[in-house]
Each structure stands twice: as structure tokens, then as C-alpha cells.
Amino acid sequence: MNIFRFCGDMFHLVSIIVLLLKIYATKSCSGISLKTQELYALVFLARYLNLFTVVISVYNTVMKVVFIVTSLAIVYCMRWHRVVKRSYDREIDTFKYEFLVLAAFLLALVLNDKFTFFEIFWAFSIYLEAVAILPQLVLLQRSGNVDNLTGQYVFFLGAYRGLYILNWIYRYFTEPHFNGWISCISGLLQTALYADFFYYYFISWKNNSKLQLPA
Questions:
Q1: What is the pTM of this model?
Q2: What start-end ranges are recorded for coiled-coil regions in this protein (predicted)?
């Protein structure tokens, strides 16, 4: 554990809290992609298959449970909560994410640290997480205007990935046998996907105006 990873985990946790706050306080999921949330739920379920067989620390186990439970709770609310589901932007959340899942799984079969059940699904979760934000970004571009809580959610999610890059750099220079090439490459790709959003987020912050993305 280092300060970059800890801060990254906290930013990730804050992004989830912001999203849950939006859903439970406003009873609305407008501007949120259900497809992205389903991909994240799949990411955490695949990554933490060893939840009950490998215990690294209490902190690690608690964070695993939190990510799994919250991701499933968000999907549940957007799909089945009688009030929240009414605000779901079904007409513009049409990204074909099945191709992302298939591509990530095929890549995990070819590029992995070890050809074992847990390692393949771990690699699959890393590759899938790298592109899981795509449906959300496409939805925001199609809708144009981004409400404050949705903008904060995506910002903290992107900041989490940025901090994890610093975490990998730190580990590369401090751990003699660090081997995280799968995480590093996927993390760089994922962070690059946020570049356009961060640009317009900074512009809106600088001008103290509402965040708007180009169609």
C-alpha cells in the first residue's frame, strides 16, 4: 500500500458515493449509463472471484465487498426500482457493450500472466474496466448537458485511474519484482478515454459554467 493507491481507492469510493447520492437523494438516474454500471458490476465480480479464498488484509477484503455490493445495488436501482428506473435514458444509452465484453475475454485468453482460471478472469476484469466507461461517455455526449452530480461522478472516477498510474510508477521504482504491465497498459488506455471529458470539465470549472460536452 502506498499513498497513491490509497488516494486512488478513496477517489473511487467517493465516485460511488456521489452516484449513490444522486440516485437515492434525487430518485433519478438521468444521465447515468446502465450499460456502464453493468460492465462495472461484471468487472468486480470477475476480479474478486477469490474473495473468500485469498485474504490479503481486512482493508482489501472490505473494499472488495464494498465495490461488489454497491455496483450491484446501482444496477438494481436503475433496472428495477419503481421510481428510479423511470428516469433512465434508455433511448440514448444504446452502446453495444457486448462487443467490449467479448473482446476483453478473448484478449484475456491470449494475454495473461498465467493461464489459470483466476488469472484469466482477473485479466478479463482489467481489460474490461479499461473500456467500461465508454457507454457513459457516449451517453453524456449524446445528451449534451451534464448535471453537477453526474459530472462529479465521472471526474472522481477518472481521477481514480490517474492516481493508479502514479501508483504503478511508484511501485516500478520501489518494488524489485513489480510486474504490472497488464494493469499499466489498460490503465493508460482508460485514462486517455477521459481526456476529452477532463478538458471540458476544466473549462466549465474555469468559467464557472455548466458542464457541456460537444455532441
A1: 0.91
A2: none
